[in-house]
Write a structure and sequence with these properties.
This protein is an alpha/beta fold. The chain has one domain: Alpha-Beta Barrel (TIM Barrel), CATH 3.20.20. It is built from seven helices and eight strands, in the order E-H-E-H-E-H-E-H-E-E-H-E-H-E-H. It has an eight-stranded parallel beta sheet. The radius of gyration is 16 Å and the shape is globular. The chain starts with a strand and ends with a helix.
Amino acid sequence: MLAPSILTADFGQLADQIRAAEEGGADYIHLDVMDGHFVPPITFGPIVVETIRRITKLPLDIHLMIEEPERQFEAFIDAGGDIINFHIEAAPHVDRLLRTIHAKNKRAGICINPGTPLTAIEEVLDVADQIMVMLINPGWGGQKMLPSALNKVRALKAILDARGLNPDIEVDGGVKANNAAQCVEAGATVLVCGSSVYNPDSTPQSNLRTLRAAIEKASL
């Protein structure tokens, strides 16, 4: 599945940019919420999510790069979020928060940064609907994938298979047409794609079709 992130989209034409992603075959719309504390940049809050909810019927994949996500997640559910992802590094009561999101009838995801070992999330793998592996250090769009990042995806996939678990594995950061197949082969089922979709070189529709073709080759 492809989840274009609007982080590098033209916010002056946001409705058109989201509709272009729909036309290109996007499965989700990925929304990067940053608070200026957990990561340096500040992006947007629930009001923007509410606006996007009115624009599209695609599932909204909310990526909370914020401190104390347990205090804010309900506002993003109320705004129309369908999948609520938060960082293990920011949440001391991970199991409780995952179950609380489930109680709101939403899918719950846990995110893990490049410098955090998989052992940090092993106790909640059976509770999460989605595991997001960061392939970059979070905060800015347009970064290159870290060289060893897919090793963590492979290791996570092996752990899940050994335990008979099947949450989605989402990868975020530096996903391009030239490495999308490698992400899928490593075990990823959801690919966040930002600057590879929203850039001045081509249209979102064309970029998404190129990415789709790349991952379909990995499935052959």
